[in-house]
Amino acid sequence: MILVSVMYPAGPRFDHDYYLKTHMPLVRERWSGLGLHEATVVTGQGTPDGGAAPFQVIALLKFESADAFAKAAAAHGAEIFADIPNFTEAQAQVQINAFA
To answer: 28-85 pLDDT, tens per residue?
Structure first.
């Protein structure tokens, strides 16, 4: 099992309503049959020292494996990535994580 973190930096416009009601359902619909087990969205609230959060939104996508994520991205990534300008101009940072 792996966790893919899709992190949207703070600052640029971000349409939370569109993201939660349109984009994330698209992600779940397209990738659930391809190894996506869970998709959770969190919003940045700040840093421990009271500073601004570096990321405004983070999607946490739990996949069966890195290979499953690669296959899902190959199958439907173009459609999912093409939807991003509909909710933000932010350049997402993506990180693949292993569970310890």
So the answer is: 999 999 999 999 999 999 999 999 999 999 999 999 999 999 999 999 999 999 999 9
Q: Cβ distance 60 to 5 under 8 Å?
A: yes
Rounded CA-CA distance 33/37 in Å is 9
Return the half-sphere exposure (C-beta side, CA atoms, 13 A cut-off) of residue 9: 7
Is the distance from CB of 45 to CB of 98 less than 8 angstroms? no
* C-alpha span between 87 and 97 (Å, rounded): 25
* CATH 3.40.366.10 at 2-98, yes or no: no
- What distance in Å separates the CA atoms of residue 20 and residue 67, rounded to the nearest whole number? 26
- Taking the C-alpha atoms of residue 1 and residue 13, their distance in angstroms, rounded to an integer, is 32
